From TrEMBL:
It comes from Penicillium malachiteum. InterPro entries: NAD(P)-bd_dom (IPR016040), NAD(P)-bd_dom_sf (IPR036291). Pfam families: NAD_binding_10. Belongs to the avfA family. Residues 7-227 form the NAD(P)-binding domain. This is NAD(P)-binding domain-containing protein.
Length: 273
């Protein structure tokens, strides 16, 4: 399999890269700064898969055609969005990357014949309303982030997530795609930390609400979700008590999806009136 990894120098992506390569998958890691190329290529040493680095600024992706050029160059089976402005460049950069470039890559990926899975690394607060399972104090903390700390980021991520969900729903309704299943995987971690992986998580619908999770654990979960043909939906993620493998299996077996209280029809109507 060929994986296009967007935002390849981000901390989660750096953890994810060797995991994907260990599956004997090829990975093309997209980064903006050429100074990071050697650091990323070093992650491929001794791995089963082949690693390439593509120097390209996601802020320059101004259209679906721009995204399609990169996809056509790589012809990936799976696309992973682990990119973001990271607060640099102000609100304009956040909108350009976290919202607009993300949407362009989604549009291009969903239309590309080779692509069958798109994994978005988002965040647990990317939703319009408090879900029934989330404690009030956790939702209050999320609202502080959405309205006071990172309002532009929160709005951009919500726009991208809902667009991805609308695209997936629209595709499932189109008989032309019936023979070509597509997995739209939205991984939604809580507060990110830099501690070593615990390999124990709460995944899918998280009763803890907005707990924390290590970046390495996010990468481990992303790798496992991407490797399966039966993962699709919104999956909240915090550190918890279940080993990752058990949490993923439970997610699939019990058909757990944090999207279940969202108004998907409204998303479809908003983007595709």
């Amino acid at each position: 399999m060929q994986v296009l990894l967007l935002g390849g120098h981000g901390k989660v992506a750096l953890y994810m890269t060797p995991l994907l390569l260990n599956r004997a998958w090829s990975v093309t890691s997209v980064v903006r700064n050429p100074d990071h190329e050697s650091e990323i290529l070093a992650l491929g040493k001794g791995r089963k898969g082949k690693l390439n680095v593509l120097i390209s600024s996601l802020e320059d992706v101004k259209s679906v055609a721009d995204a399609r050029k990169i996809i056509d160059t790589v012809t990936p089976d799976y696309v992973v969005w682990s990119a973001g402005a990271g607060g640099k460049g102000g609100p304009a950069s956040t909108i350009a990357i976290d919202q607009e470039a993300a949407k362009h890559f989604m549009t291009a990926s969903f239309a590309a014949p080779s692509v069958s899975r798109f994994l978005m690394v988002s965040w647990i607060g990317s939703r319009r309303n408090q879900p029934s399972w989330m404690p009030n104090d956790a939702w209050a903390g999320i609202m502080v982030g959405k309205t006071e700390k990172l309002p532009t980021y929160a709005a951009a991520k919500l726009e991208a997530d809902e667009y991805m969900t609308a695209l997936a729903a629209k595709r499932k309704q189109d008989p032309a795609f019936a023979a070509h299943p597509f997995q739209a995987i939205n991984l939604r971690p809580g507060i990110l930390t830099d501690e070593p992986a615990t390999r124990k998580v709460e995944l899918g619908i998280t009763a803890k609400g907005r707990g924390s999770v290590t970046r390495e654990d996010v990468a481990i979960v992303a790798d496992q979700l991407l490797a399966r043909a039966d993962t699709d939906g919104w999956f909240d993620l915090v550190n918890g008590d279940l080993p990752v493998e058990e949490a993923v299996e439970k997610l699939v077996t019990e058909k757990i999806d944090a999207l279940n209280e969202e108004d998907v029809d409204a998303m479809v109507k908003r983007f595709f009136p």
